[in-house]
Specification:
With 141 residues, this protein is mainly alpha-helical. The chain is built from six helices and two strands, in the order αααββααα. A hairpin with a 5-residue loop joins strand 1 and strand 2. The protein is elongated and about 60 Å long.
């Protein structure tokens, strides 16, 4: 079954939160508490997003993160690849020959087409489009 990982969920929540904060710094601990996310895992996700240029780290006692890119230009596909690596529904579409059925396989080509459509869709949906709901008042800090 295809599904987004918890890391992707947490990245989306954090970026959505930061987009509503505007230029204000979003603190990792604050995000973790608001969304009930394990602090250590969120910290790793945010570090990866910073390393990939989606967010900017600000050090100091009032430190945290702000968006480096507008949510209108960040695609879900980019975000997924930044956190999890290549988007694949099956490994054999990218030349993995470890499958014992490779020589007789009749579904690799159709699966490759499906995978390309999924990737194309993810590369054309922006974070802003999927996170366009307002943050509830009790979460706006």
């Amino acid at each position: 079954m295809l599904k987004l990982t918890k890391k992707i969920d947490y990245a989306l929540m954090a970026i959505n939160f930061m987009s509503f904060k505007g230029e204000s710094v979003a603190n990792t601990r604050n995000i973790a508490e608001i969304y009930n996310i394990p602090l250590e895992l969120l910290a790793k996700v945010l570090q990866r997003l910073a390393k990939k240029g989606f967010i900017v780290s600000q050090n100091g006692p009032k430190g945290g993160y702000t968006l480096a890119k507008d949510p209108n230009v960040i695609t879900l596909g980019e975000l997924i690849r930044a956190i999890e690596g290549p988007i694949q529904i099956v490994h054999c579409t990218e030349g993995d020959t470890s499958c014992l059925q490779t020589a007789r396989c009749t579904i690799r080509s159709p699966l490759r087409k499906i995978e390309h459509k999924i990737v194309d869709f993810l590369d054309n949906v922006t974070i802003d489009q999927i996170c366009s709901e307002e943050v509830p008042e009790e979460l706006a800090v």
